[in-house]
Write a structure and sequence with these properties.
alpha/beta; 20% strand; six-stranded mixed β-sheet; single chain; binds magnesium ion; Rossmann fold; 291 residues; binds adenosine-5'-triphosphate
């Protein structure tokens, strides 16, 4: 399979952030300021940025868990005012599943809430568990599944709700490198099969280059915004060792370095966060060299 769809093949903007500002209660300096972003329907968009810059805050705004303080954030033209079934979040933590429900019941939960018949919702759950390569594991409880399997169940659970947008906050961050690589490949397959719009947050440059149609690089916080957007025009399926991959990695790495230097000029009170992001980037580089 070789997917070289140009950006114009997507279905038009589905998510639009216009000059948004966001501050948590009683916060003097906003976390996000003058943030603009337009995501196309069917796009795989990766959001990359230093630790603490506000990536999860952006995701929480899109999910409707928080409200913008200023500007406009719309989904399919409608302002986002709260959570909705058109958006679904895959979290990093393994404890996001209902521990008292078997894998199949976790996935069938959303369809059940929608009033789907028992037969239909189990059929739906089986279909999505099959898509995430978990056939045969349907009747296990979360405690009986590995970390990678739990993330697969989360993805299946989200897909069973048939959202317009999948929001993923470092979903593979806690997994070992091999499992992470496998799930990255599987996610691309799922994205191609379902044509969902995906907003995927990561610290890892290599992950962003592997997955994204475009990568949005956030500036260092506070008052963070989308500093640059890089289209990843590498053919799919992508591999870390393929021509162009390393160049893209270097390009993004240099942009992040530039952003961090600019951020250090703007405010020098966040040294610890900068160090953490540096460690993450070195991990990404180590992976790049190894594969
Ligand atoms: N509930 C909250 N109340 C007040 N401030 C918060 C809250 N959650 C996050 N913040 C602050 O907002 C800023 C952005 O946090 P956010 O979690 O969005 O960053 P992030 O980019 O996702 O970080 P990481 O990469 O570490 O996950 C940080 O300075 C953080 O301390
Ligand atoms: Mg976060």
């Amino acid at each position: 399979m070789n997917d070289q769809r140009p950006a114009t093949a997507h279905g038009g903007p589905i998510l639009l952030a216009e000059n948004i500002t966001f501050a948590y209660a009683k916060q003097a300096t906003p976390v996000l300021e003058n943030l603009d972003l337009s995501i196309q329907e069917g796009e795989f968009f990766c959001l990359l940025g230093p630790s603490g810059c506000g990536k999860t805050s952006v995701l929480n705004l899109i999910a409707g868990f928080q409200q913008v303080t200023g500007g406009r954030l719309t989904l399919a033209g409608q302002p986002i005012t709260g959570p909705g079934v058109d958006r679904a979040v895959v979290f990093q933590g393994e404890d996001a599943l209902f521990s008292w429900l078997r894998a199949i019941d976790n996935v069938a939960f959303g369809p059940k809430m929608k009033g789907m018949s028992r037969h239909e919702r189990y059929e739906t759950a089986r279909k999505y568990l099959n898509l995430v390569h978990l056939s045969g594991q349907e009747y296990k409880y979360p405690s009986e599944l590995s970390g990678g399997m739990k993330q697969r169940v989360q993805i299946a659970r989200v897909l069973a709700n048939d959202p317009k947008i999948m929001l993923m906050d470092e979903p593979f961050g806690a997994l070992d490198a091999q499992t992470r690589g496998k799930l990255q490949d599987e996610l691309v397959e799922i994205w191609r099969a379902t044509q969902k719009t995906i907003v995927f947050i990561t610290h890892d440059i290599a992950e962003a280059v592997l997955l994204g149609d475009r990568v949005g690089i956030m500036s260092k916080g506070p008052s963070s915004r989308i500093a640059t957007i890089i289209p990843i025009d590498l053919p799919r399926p992508r591999r870390r060792g393929y021509a162009g991959f390393g160049d893209m990695w270097e390009k993004i790495n240099a942009l992040i370095d530039g952003e961090e230097a600019a951020g250090d000029d703007r405010a020098s009170n966040d040294g610890a966060a900068a160090k953490i992001s540096l460690v993450h980037r070195h991990e990404g580089h180590a992976e790049l060299v190894r594969k």
